[in-house]
Amino acid sequence: MTSTSSCSQSLPPRTDTDAWWRDAVIYQIYPRSFADANGDGIGDIQGVREHVDHLVALGVDAVWLSPFYPSPQVDAGYDVSDYFNLAPEYGSLEDLDALVADLHKAGIRVVIDLVPNHSSDRHEWFRAALAAGPGSPERDRYIFRHSDDGAPNNWGSLFGGPAWQPVEPVTGCSEDRNWYYLHLFAAEQPDFNWSNEEVHEHFRAFLRFWVERGIDGFRVDVAHGLVKAEGLPDDDLGPDRWNVVGPRGEDGAAAREKLPDVGPAFNQPGVHDIYREWRRVLDEVGQDILMVAEAWVPTEAEAALYVRADEMSQAFNFPFLIAGWDAAELRRVIDVSLDEYGAVGAPATWVLSNHDVVRHASRLAYPADMDTDPGIGPRDPQPDAELGLARARAATLFMLGLPGSAYLYQGEELGLPEHTTMEDEARQDPLWERTNHLVPGRDGCRVPLPWRRDGASYGYSATGRTWLPQPEGWGEYSPQAQEGLAGSTLMLYRRAIALRRERRLGRGSVEWLAAEPGVLLLRNWETGVVLNTTEHPVRLEGLGAPLITSWHPADQDGADTGGAGDAADAVSTVVVPPNGACWLELAAGGLDGGDPR
Ligand code: GLC
């Protein structure tokens, strides 16, 4: 028995067994880069409103909006200075109400970002803390420490450099000499003190406020980081969260390795009390309100602890994202996830891209031993775009065939690659500066979307302004270029999402069927889901006819279903090309060799 399942025995029964999010396809909107209606080069809420039809046609169940709150934008909005409003460049509360109404009318739910680990240093509480001085109640809402011999401990910021900021240079007050405050991210993102009751009350008020405005769920940022180990002991992994591990790239650009989020700053048992508290609040003010954890914890078992019956609803499945193009690892992650989440009665989730990682249309083109995250720069080896896109389409189709809930990141439905040649001067991610340009950062996956084939900014902004540069040829990925085009990535996503719903795959299960190494073949209800990660075509005989393929049938004689209308259709042969995936209508009798779970 796993530790997860033994913990679950004392839990109350789940009341959310029919909740909408259990099989939902949830589409992440990064508002800054989605669409810019007012022409200032920054995406906005009105821009999202103008493309609700795109979301409806795609068929998603919900959208998750990355932060839109007032913010100095040191970390693209993950540095919040007011939790109860919108940044003027994104719109007003009324604009958001209008968007929520539009989406609800279209049957699409709305999830927003909740950033509880830290605020912006411009938040009124932090301003008050600096002004009030050492030992004040205002300072107790954050993590201030005194130390006479350098930083209070050896922790490093996840964005590079130390995690402690000396206070005296900020305030200019001599009484602040040898005082520091903690920031796991940028110095402009001071960490909250979750032992302080006012911090708890602030976030309970946050939840109530947004649910009353019609919000259907919350994505909890850095969910594994809020509570730190008692006494703030040193981190055994040392102060440098980004290790240089040697040269890569032809001109010797440095290769780096990100340390895992383990140690005294992460995944402390006390975080779970916070989510229990929030669950009680949400159950009071709403029904089936989604809470999804962004918890970069090492194992599926640890992630499953966040979704016990009295805590969150879902946790992002980062092991699935990291598994890459490795069939055995994907299968392991799927099995363990279904077991661990299943043991606590929660659905598994699946994700391949988001605003923090290299887009999977580029990431999957690299050899497994190349650590690309987060970001690829012009001096790094460049991906093979065609290979990356073929694998991305296959990986997504495979993912959408799995039971549970799936997350999509804006632009992946267009097959968008990472911008891998962005010039250094354009970069805005604090990682770039804070790692002394060792890590390119996440700007390459945050480039403004193309909506039209031509024109300045390809339809993103009426004035053609863009807060990050778009690469050449971006318009070929636009919905305008792909609309109605058989075999386009946009059409593939739409069809797959519609079929997924029709065939209730999100509510199904996984039964592995025998397949050669490098090939994954599973049954979910009457649907066969196949992924070929090998470099040769794989012939599947007598299993069933293809329902949808990640490859364009005209590009390849991959699908041979026998003569149309022929009774032999039921025992058709499918040839899955390398880097391909498909779904099959399983024929009875073709299922020998199964490995039931
Ligand atoms: C999360 C966000 C990331 C942000 C960080 C700090 O990991 O996804 O974008 O930089 O938290 O808030």
Automatic annotation (TrEMBL):
Stored CDD domains: AmyAc_OligoGlu_TS (cd11332)
MF GO annotations: alpha-amylase activity; oligo-1,6-glucosidase activity
Keywords on record: Glycosidase, Hydrolase
Domain Glycosyl hydrolase family 13 catalytic: 28-446
SMART domains named among the record's database cross-references: Aamy
A GO biological process held by the record: oligosaccharide catabolic process
Pfam families: Alpha-amylase
Enzyme Commission number(s): 3.2.1.10
Cited PANTHER family: ALPHA-AMYLASE FAMILY MEMBER (PTHR10357), NEUTRAL AND BASIC AMINO ACID TRANSPORT PROTEIN RBAT (PTHR10357:SF179)
Family in the record: Belongs to the glycosyl hydrolase 13 family.
Protein name: Oligo-1,6-glucosidase
